[in-house]
Amino acid sequence: MKQYTLDPKALLGGVIASDNDQEIVQLSLQKDNEIPTYQTDAIVLLLVLNGSAQIVTDAATIETRGLQIVRLESNEAHSIRALEDATNILVIKQLTHELVFSKKLRFGSCCM
Length: 112
Known about the structure:
Elements: E1 12-18, E2 22-29, E3 34-38, E4 42-50, E5 52-57, E6 61-65, E7 68-72, E8 78-82, E9 87-95
Antiparallel strand pairs: 1-2, 2-9, 3-8, 4-7, 4-9, 5-6, 5-8
């Protein structure tokens, strides 16, 4: 088990933890700061902790506020723009893997 502490005053933020399966990133944005369009081969969860942001994909534009979560599929191009000062977003990138097992993995157990 590991515990991490976010710094709400961090300039832009940064990678908190990273391994072969997952990357956790803190974004600390001021109004109109923008993360340009990008995509990754990971499922991305954007957890808006406070403030508000605009998430833009090819399919939609969402305005999201504190305590809301946006889920993006792998390779879904998106950009993020802060709509308020002190917008803090926790980004969790879960890399996807092809399973060679015929059954799904469940939380905490594996069925082979």
